[in-house]
Design a protein that fits this description.
- By secondary structure, this protein is α+β, with helices and mostly antiparallel strands.
- The protein contains seven helices and eight strands, in the order H-E-H-E-E-E-H-E-H-E-H-E-E-H-H.
- It has helices spanning 12-20, 34-39, 86-90, 102-111, 121-132, 161-178, 180-198; strands at residues 27-30, 40-42, 47-56, 72-75, 94-97, 116-120, 138-140, 147-155.
- Strands 1, 2, 3, 4, 5, 6, 7 and 8 form an eight-stranded mixed β-sheet that branches.
- The longest helix is centred in the C-terminal third of the chain and has 19 residues, at 180-198.
- The chain is globular.
Length: 199
């Protein structure tokens, strides 16, 4: 886009709030939901992720249909989208705990305070490596809880952001057509997997 960009790395919740208050032009990556759409413009999808359910290694929990989850305590931190599981919470099939950070969910899971942690596989692997140094404690349920695209989001509080969004989306389309977007995604996934393998 021909613009000089400075990146800051914040938690999803605090990055969201700071961007909404105008401290940043945009923030990413975020799943789309109705509440966020009231406050932000969403770019075209950057990358798709699977929402995985992580359990303790000795867990017998299986997920093939909704009733398999009946009565289970699920952990999903504050600021994280619960769109994919809201219907389960509303029907009292599952119960939800929302600590401040995702790493807290995995510590709660290890202590037996929750039954399932919902996270995307990439974030979960990073947290498990950083917090526990090994993955002998956890496994993920084969059936995912849904797939969702991640977006760059611009606050609606600034009128000029609709123009930045349009320009960003146009160039994103161009990069996708020329194959550059796929190359970037592949490069970063390979780099990320290499880091996790070395830990």
């Amino acid at each position: 886009m021909g613009k000089e960009v400075e990146l800051s790395f914040w938690s999803w919740k605090h990055g969201y709030e700071a961007t909404k208050q105008g401290e940043f032009v945009a923030t990413f990556p975020y799943l789309k939901n109705k509440d966020r759409e009231e406050e932000f413009y969403f770019s075209k999808p950057l990358f798709n992720i699977l929402l995985r359910g992580f359990t303790k290694n000795d867990s017998t929990i299986e997920y093939n249909q909704e009733k398999d989850l009946s009565g289970l305590m699920v952990c999903r931190p504050e600021g994280y989208s619960i769109t994919k599981i809201k219907h389960l919470v509303d029907k009292d099939i599952i119960f939800l705990k929302r600590p401040k950070e995702m790493k807290n969910c995995f510590h709660m899971l290890k202590r037996g305070e929750v039954d399932i942690v919902l996270a995307n596989e990439f974030e979960a692997k990073g947290i498990i490596n950083n917090e526990f140094g090994t993955n002998i404690y956890f496994k993920f349920i084969e059936k995912s809880f849904g797939e969702g695209p991640l977006h760059l989001i611009f606050p609606k509080s600034s009128p000029e952001n609709i123009h930045l969004l349009y320009e960003f989306d146009q160039l994103l389309d161009q990069m996708a057509k020329e194959g550059d977007l796929a190359k970037i995604i592949k490069r970063h996934l390979m780099y990320y997997q290499a880091i996790l393998k070395d830990k």
